[in-house]
C-alpha cells in the first residue's frame, strides 16, 4: 500500500514525504511542478536512502489521476496541491478556485471511483476568518477569510463535510496549519519561492543572503506588544510529523467516519520584530529593515489552541524558535538560488 501525496514536491509536501519515508510508508507523489522542482524529491531520496514514485500531473486532470489509482495500491491521500499566494488570489481568483476547489473535487471524485476514502487536507488558520478572536479553537465555526485563497480553503472544508455526509466511507481530516517556517536540519530541502517572497521568513532569509537589500516590516502600529503583527510560527518538520500523526490516527480509529479538523501550531504567537531578533541572534547576521505601511488583509495577531492535536493525535510542535531560525539559514545559505 502507498500514500498518494499531491503537491508532494513543494515546501511542506517534500518535508512530509521525508517523514513518511522515515516512518516506512511507500509514497507516490503527484505534482504538476507549477511551484516546485523535482530536485526536492531527489534530495529526499538521498536523505532517506529510499525511493519515491513521482508522477508529473495536474489534479484537475481526471484521466491522469485515475491512472495513478489504477497503477498503485493507494490507501490514503495527503492533499497539498494548491495555489497559495494570498495577494495573487485577489488578482486571479478564478485560477485559485479552479485549482484549489475544482482540483480537490476532481481528486475526491477519482478517489471515490477507486474506493479510496482516507483523506488529509492542507487547510489553514485562515479558515477561522477575520472576526474570530484568538486563540483559534476547532470548535469555532468556519469564518469569512479576506482573500479568495482563504475562501478556497473554507470551500474545500465544506465540500469535505458534505461529501462525508453523503458517503459513509469517507474519512477526511483537515489540518489547519498556522505559520510553517524553517527547513529540514540537513539544509538540503526548504522553501524555494519563485520571484519576490510573499512570506516573512523567505524574505528575511533572502535579505540575509544578500539577494534583497532590506526587509519591509508591514506596520508597527498594531494593537500588539511591540506594534508589529504576531503569528504562531511552527517548524515545517514538526508540521510534516503532524501529517504522519494524522495518518496513524486514521489507521488506529477504524470507527471514525466523516470529517474532523485539527489545528497544527505551537499555541503561542510572536511578533515580526521578535522574528528579526531571533534570526539575528541565532545566526549572527544583521537584517536591515524599514517600517512600511500595513499590508492589506493582515490581522494583528492570531495563534492556535493546539490542545486537540496534542490529545487526539499525540502531536506537539517540539522544535524551538532558534531551530527554526538556524534551519532557515542553513537551507538558504546552502542554496542561495533555491533548487
Ligand atoms: P507549495 O507551493 O510549495 O506546494 C504546493 C505544491 O502543489 C507545489 O509543488 C505545486 O507545484 C503543486 N501544485 C499546485 N497546483 C497543482 C495542481 N493543480 N496539480 C498538481 N500539483 C499542483 O506550497 P506549500 O507551502 O508547501 O503548501 C502546501 C499546502 O499547504 C497548500 O495547500 C497550501 O495552501 C497549504 N498551506 C500552506 C501554508 C504555508 O504557509 N506554506 C499555510 C497553510 C496552508
Ligand atoms: C507574517 C507576518 C506580515 C512579509 C500567510 C497566509 C496564511 C498562511 C501563511 C496559507 C505578517 C509580516 C511579511 C514581509 C512583513 N498561508 N511580513 N514583511 O500573512 O500570517 O499568513 O501565510 O494558508 O493563510 O495569509 O504570513 O509570512 O506572509 O506574514 O512584515 O515582507 O510578517 O505582515 O504580520 P501570514 P506571512
TrEMBL record:
The gene is galE. Residues 4-328 form the NAD(P)-binding domain. GO terms for cellular component: cytosol. It comes from the Bacteria. Homodimer. This is UDP-glucose 4-epimerase. Signal peptide: none annotated. InterPro entries: NAD(P)-bd_dom, NAD(P)-bd_dom_sf, UDP_G4E. Pfam families: GDP_Man_Dehyd. GO terms for molecular function: UDP-glucose 4-epimerase activity. The keyword NAD applies. It catalyses: UDP-alpha-D-glucose = UDP-alpha-D-galactose. One of its GO terms (biological process) is galactose metabolic process. SUPFAM superfamilies: NAD(P)-binding Rossmann-fold domains. Pathway: Carbohydrate metabolism; galactose metabolism. Belongs to the NAD(P)-dependent epimerase/dehydratase family.
Amino acid at each position: 500500500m502507498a500514500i498518494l501525496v499531491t503537491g508532494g514536491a513543494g515546501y511542506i509536501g517534500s518535508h512530509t514525504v521525508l517523514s513518511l519515508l522515515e516512518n516506512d510508508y511507500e509514497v507516490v507523489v503527484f505534482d504538476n511542478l507549477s511551484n516546485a522542482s523535482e530536485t526536492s524529491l531527489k534530495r529526499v531520496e538521498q536523505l532517506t536512502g529510499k525511493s519515491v514514485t513521482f508522477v508529473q500531473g495536474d489534479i484537475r486532470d481526471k484521466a491522469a489521476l485515475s491512472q495513478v489509482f489504477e497503477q498503485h495500491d493507494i490507501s490514503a491521500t495527503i492533499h497539498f496541491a494548491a495555489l497559495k499566494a494570498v495577494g495573487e488570489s485577489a488578482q486571479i481568483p478564478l485560477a485559485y478556485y479552479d485549482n484549489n476547489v475544482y482540483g480537490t473535487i476532481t481528486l475526491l471524485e477519482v478517489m471515490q471511483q477507486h474506493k479510496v476514502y482516507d483523506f488529509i487536507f492542507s487547510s489553514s488558520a485562515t479558515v477561522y476568518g477575520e472576526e474570530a478572536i484568538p486563540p483559534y479553537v476547532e470548535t469555532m465555526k468556519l469564518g469569512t477569510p479576506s482573500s479568495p485563497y482563504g475562501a478556497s480553503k473554507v470551500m474545500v472544508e465544506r465540500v469535505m463535510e458534505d461529501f462525508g455526509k453523503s458517503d459513509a466511507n469517507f474519512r477526511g481530516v483537515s489540518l489547519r496549519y498556522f505559520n510553517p517556517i524553517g527547513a529540514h536540519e540537513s539544509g538540503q530541502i526548504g522553501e524555494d519561492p519563485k520571484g519576490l517572497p510573499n512570506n516573512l521568513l523567505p524574505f528575511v532569509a533572502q535579505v540575509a543572503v544578500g539577494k534583497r537589500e532590506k526587509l519591509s516590516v508591514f506596520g508597527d502600529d498594531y494593537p500588539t506588544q511591540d506594534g508589529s503583527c504576531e503569528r504562531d510560527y511552527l517548524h515545517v518538520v514538526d508540521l510534516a510529523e503532524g501529517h504522519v500523526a494524522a495518518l496513524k490516527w486514521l489507521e488506529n480509529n477504524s470507527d471514525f467516519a466523516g470529517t474532523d479538523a485539527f489545528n497544527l501550531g505551537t499555541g503561542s504567537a510572536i511578533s515580526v520584530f521578535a522574528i528579526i531578533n531571533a534570526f539575528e541572534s541565532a545566526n549572527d547576521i544583521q537584517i536591515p529593515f524599514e517600517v512600511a505601511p500595513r499590508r492589506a488583509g493582515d490581522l494583528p495577531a492570531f495563534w492556535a489552541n493546539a490542545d486537540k492535536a496534542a490529545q487526539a493525535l499525540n502531536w506537539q510542535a517540539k522544535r524551538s524558535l532558534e531551530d527554526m531560525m538556524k534551519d532557515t539559514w542553513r537551507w538558504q545559505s546552502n542554496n542561495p538560488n533555491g533548487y
